[in-house]
Amino acid sequence: MSALEKFGVEIFTQHNIFERISADKPFRPENPAFIFIKSGTIKLRQHFSDLELSANMFMVTDPQTIYEMVSVSGDFQSRMVSYKREFISALSLKFNRLITYRYFRQQMNRGVPFPESEMEVVWKSVNFLKYILDSETEMLYKKEMVEHLFSVFCYQMAGIISKEDNYSMNQMSRQEEIVFVFLTDLAEHHLTERTVEFYAERQSITTRHLSSVVKSITGKSASQIIALIVMNEAKVLLNSSNKPVSEVSSILGFSDQYAFSHFFKKHLEVSPRQYRHQFES
């Protein structure tokens, strides 16, 4: 049984992080996580932008997002704290909103560094938590120790994120707020709703206004982003499961396999079967 299943949290280092981050094809994390970079760089593609992280930076990953590894340097040193969502949901709504906002900033390709002194403290906390998790010594209250150490880590992150992001979040422009809500809605509804009209109505604005704002903030139109999210879902389903193409098309909400194949080929210029074959050979 993994530490994640047993204790609700698991920690990976640069030596085994690629057991969870696929290096050669798009992947979806099974659980949310914090990834910290101590040295070197890693470049990830997420949704519609590339995000490069270097020393003294961190990111939050979310199971609703599909990532693709672009590159990693030889001197890459990292820790990934992967956790069960319910482990963090008990924390304040304000903290959860800050995490969501941090995630939003990443989508906008804004990696935010934090002071080296703060990285040192967090790094030590994470390493101590890993030491307890990895210890084979019988500990009577190991689960409780892990929960408390994870709480300490969360409070550390709440402090850092609040300091870095609270001001920015309060200064979020009306345009950024529209894109923030659009991306949040899209993560929740993209399997059933693919029209710009649906997402515009959710915010009581016109489709033209939504499209214009999304384009000005992200560089892509709302319809392009909707198609991109669906395509990313399709890629992960095709290369991480043996489900027939007809079942994949059904999961993705297409009327039939032909509609899905037409959509897929239009955006990637290969059929779903040809795409899947690339990873089999």
Please describe what this structure looks like.
It contains twelve helices and seven strands. 55% of the residues lie in helices and 14% in strands. The chain is globular, with a radius of gyration of 20 Å. The protein starts with a helix and ends with a helix. The strands form two sheets. Strands 1-7-2-5 form a four-stranded antiparallel sheet. It is an alpha+beta fold. Helix 3 crosses helix 5 and helix 7 packs across helix 8. This is AraC family transcriptional regulator. It comes from Chryseobacterium herbae.
Write the layout of secondary structure elements.
Layout: H1 3-7, E1 9-13, E2 33-39, E3 42-46, E4 49-53, E5 57-61, E6 67-72, E7 77-83, H2 85-89, H3 93-107, H4 116-134, H5 142-170, H6 174-189, H7 196-202, H8 207-218, H9 222-240, H10 245-251, H11 257-268, H12 272-280
Antiparallel strand pairs: 1-7, 2-5, 2-7, 3-4, 3-6
Protein name: AraC family transcriptional regulator
Pfam families: HTH_18
InterPro entries: Homeodomain-like_sf (IPR009057), HTH_AraC (IPR018060), Tscrpt_reg_AraC-type_HTH (IPR020449)
